[in-house]
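Re: [ENG-882] Designed sequences occasionally contain unexpected residues at chain ends

Forwarding the minimal case from QA. Structure tokens:
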């Protein structure tokens, strides 16, 4: 397959024809017609080949490969082989670079998606890999990705000179691509780093935290270094700053040595964080340029990560004042709003005993208080209580525990209402019941349910036990005896149960499991277990023995 690349302007008639075909492809995809998509992309590919339009050919090939796999799963391997043959035979260096980038991404995705299985295989070294990649080991995939990434970026001069606009519609221009003058170098370098990151965990022969012994991480460092040098030499300050920010962010996550550490004996505290030091240096160098807003954003996000919202707010305010017209200034404004916004999360149990003092665990920020409201089934307000909280001056989240006395038995809806206006108030079911139910599987396919008073542990006689199916339909009803128990034949259809007596009908349905009644050691003797219930209303202080 010999592919010629023409980077001239596509005549309007041809462009419209391609547009029409792609609209048909999208419609077929929405209608789940993979065979139609395959037929149409074949047509686009042939048309692109005839008109020497590599962008259309690449897009058509990848779409066809995707939908062919839906029809014939094994076609993935054929499609990958086709890409490799295309890369070998094309006479266009730019096409070859893109194809190697695609191949690296496919190998990386396959290896990452199958890494659990690959980790279990013994690596094959000094031996030609099998023609079937399903038999490959992790090290083969790692080398395939590394090799194809290097091939994709081999001619950096060509990539820097080639605009990604030449490969529309295969390439979609991103927002930040403008800062790199839409060159192909940034696109393929970013894809290469992404592919290498995908297979980094499969790289062998490395020590944990030792970046110098990891060939994959060294490849990533090399790519970042070449990008930073290239944009610096070209005088593209925006590209230089963004590439360096991406590298610093990656480095601090990948390299344990690129973090603050304990000072030596005789010194106090931690050493300067190298990531923060690099950001400070970058900010001082480019503070007069709008792109420096990105450095401020990185510093503010770092401050948030270190739980320093006051510092983050100061950085946001300074950047907004310095670069009000920067087109991504809203990222800093949004972060500022997030710091100043109110937050409330109240954790409370969903079931309580009548009159029980339950705990409300509230996490709050930039808030003065909240109200708890209880509504009955008729949506009538039956109880309301307001709680005041201390508003921290440092914008940090604070935890406070309050108490709330539950009302009489009944099914309620608890609504948490913050003092400030919220998009919606939090609502949850709150059930007040005296019941505590225990279940036990017995020999002979029998099942026992014991209905107890949740406060005293005393049995509740004449309680109704209702059994439900998986779709919560009533299957059976039983009544407990004087000891609060009922025994009945177990049925596999039973999935939920609840207990009720008189006005106490608020116990929520609880899942039940039939389990198994097994014998251990001696098959003629069943193993028994016991649960001890105490009367919680009677507590006696224990005097320690001396």
């Amino acid at each position: 397959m010999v592919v010629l690349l023409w980077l001239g302007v596509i005549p309007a008639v041809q462009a419209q024809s391609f547009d029409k075909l792609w609209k048909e492809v999208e419609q077929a995809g929405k209608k789940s017609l993979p065979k139609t998509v395959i037929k149409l992309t074949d047509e686009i590919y042939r048309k692109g080949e005839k008109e020497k339009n590599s962008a259309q050919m690449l897009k058509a090939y990848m779409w066809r490969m995707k939908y062919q796999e839906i029809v014939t799963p094994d076609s993935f391997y054929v499609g990958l082989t086709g890409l490799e043959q295309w890369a070998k035979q094309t006479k266009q260096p730019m096409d070859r670079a893109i194809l190697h980038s695609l191949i690296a991404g496919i190998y990386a995705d396959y290896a990452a998606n199958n890494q659990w299985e690959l980790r279990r295989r013994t690596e094959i070294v000094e031996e030609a890999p099998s023609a079937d990649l399903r038999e490959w080991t992790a090290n083969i995939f790692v080398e395939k990705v590394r090799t194809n990434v290097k091939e994709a970026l081999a001619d950096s001069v060509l990539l820097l000179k080639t605009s990604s606009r030449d490969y529309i519609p295969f390439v979609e221009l991103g927002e930040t691509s403008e800062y790199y003058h839409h060159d192909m170098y940034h696109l393929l370098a970013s894809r290469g780093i992404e592919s290498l990151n995908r297979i980094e965990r499969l790289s062998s022969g490395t020590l944990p935290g030792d970046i110098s012994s990891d060939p994959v991480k060294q490849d990533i460092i090399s790519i970042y270094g070449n990008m930073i040098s290239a944009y610096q030499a070209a005088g593209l300050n925006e590209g230089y700053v963004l590439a360096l920010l991406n590298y610093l962010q990656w480095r601090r996550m990948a390299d344990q040595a690129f973090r603050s550490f304990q000072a030596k004996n005789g010194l106090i505290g931690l050493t300067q964080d190298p990531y923060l030091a690099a950001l400070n240096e970058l900010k001082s160098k480019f503070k007069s340029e709008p792109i420096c807003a990105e450095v401020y954003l990185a510093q503010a996000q770092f401050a948030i990560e270190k739980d320093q919202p006051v510092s983050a707010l100061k950085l946001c305010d300074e950047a907004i004042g310095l670069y009000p017209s920067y087109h991504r200034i809203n990222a800093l404004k949004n972060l500022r709003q997030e710091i100043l916004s109110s937050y409330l999360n109240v954790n409370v149990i969903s079931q309580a005993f009548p009159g029980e003092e339950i705990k409300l665990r509230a996490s709050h920020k930039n808030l003065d208080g909240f109200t708890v409201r209880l509504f009955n089934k008729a949506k009538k307000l039956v109880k309301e209580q307001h709680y005041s909280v201390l508003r921290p001056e440092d914008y940090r989240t604070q935890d406070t525990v309050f108490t709330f006395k539950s009302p009489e038995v009944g099914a309620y809806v608890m609504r948490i209402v913050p003092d400030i206006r919220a998009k919606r108030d939090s609502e949850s079911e709150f059930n007040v019941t005296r019941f505590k139910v225990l279940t036990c599987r017995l020999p002979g396919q029998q099942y026992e349910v014991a209905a107890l008073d949740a406060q005293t542990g005393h049995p509740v006689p004449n309680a109704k036990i209702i059994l439900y199916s998986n779709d919560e339909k009533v299957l059976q009803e039983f009544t407990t005896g004087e000891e609060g128990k009922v025994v009945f034949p177990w049925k596999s259809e039973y999935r939920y149960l609840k207990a009720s007596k008189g006005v106490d009908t608020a116990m929520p349905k609880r899942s039940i499991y039939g389990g198994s009644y097994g014998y251990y050691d001696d098959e003629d003797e069943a193993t028994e277990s016991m649960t001890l219930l105490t009367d919680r209303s009677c507590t006696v202080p224990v005097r320690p023995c001396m």
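QA comment: On inspection the terminal residues look reasonable. Confidence is low (pLDDT under 50) at residues 1-15, 536-546. Proposing we downgrade this to a documentation issue.
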